[in-house]
Amino acid sequence: MNLYGIPNCTTVKKARAWLVGRGLDVAFHDFKKQGVDPAWLRKVAAQTGWQALLNPRGTTWRQLSETDKAAVIDEASAIALMQAHPSVIRRPVLEHEGTYHLGFTEDHYHAIFGA
Questions:
Q1: 54-109 pLDDT per residue, tens
Q2: Quick check: 92 and 9 in contact, CB under 8 A?
Q3: Cα 69 to chain centroid, rounded
Q4: How many angstroms separate the CA atoms of 21 and 34, rounded?
Q5: Closest to 61 measured CA to CA, from 89, 36, 93, 88
Q6: How far is CA 32 from the centre of its chain?
Q7: Which residue, 41, 46, 21, is CA-closest to 91?
Q8: Sheet architecture: strand order including 93-96
Q9: What is the pTM of this model?
Q10: 25: alpha, beta or left, given left = phi > 0 and alpha = psi -120 to 50?
Q11: How far is Cα 27 from Cα 7, in angstroms, rounded to an integer?
């Protein structure tokens, strides 16, 4: 099981704490330190949809130029932007048993792992 994100992200911190608190072994991939592989982004986008993987509500998105935002018109352009600016990826991304899950809520994680 792998968790992908940025360590100082509040939602990532909550997800990590939830997993550790239940004794679940999870490897963490730090987008800032370890980068983002475009093949991995395509794989996640194939499962979740690139629109769900891209976070247009975050600070990084809001700080992009209108030109950069308008250039995101399809999966290829979204992946290029996410690779250049990993903070626009919805986080965390949990990889569990071959399935990718975006974001974190306790209810969602309870559904994945059981109550």
A1: 999 989 999 999 999 999 999 999 999 999 999 999 999 999 999 999 999 999 99
A2: yes
A3: 18
A4: 25
A5: 88
A6: 12
A7: 41
A8: 27-30, 2-5, 93-96, 99-102
A9: 0.92
A10: beta
A11: 12
Which is the catalytic residue, given 1, 4, 8, 9?
A: 9
Q: Tokens at residue 67, please?
A: 């030109």
Domains parsed from the chain with CATH numbers: 2-113 (3.40.30.10)
Residue 99 is encoded by which pair of tokens?
């399935």
Task: Look at residues 15, 39, 25, 24 and name the one whose alpha carbon lies nearest to residue 105.
Answer: 15
> Could you give the residue ranges of the DSSP H alpha helices within 7-65?
10-21, 31-34, 38-48, 50-53, 59-63
8, two tokens: 């100082």
9 catalytic residue (yes or no): yes
Residue reference for tokens 């608190």: 21
For residue 102, which amino acid is it? L
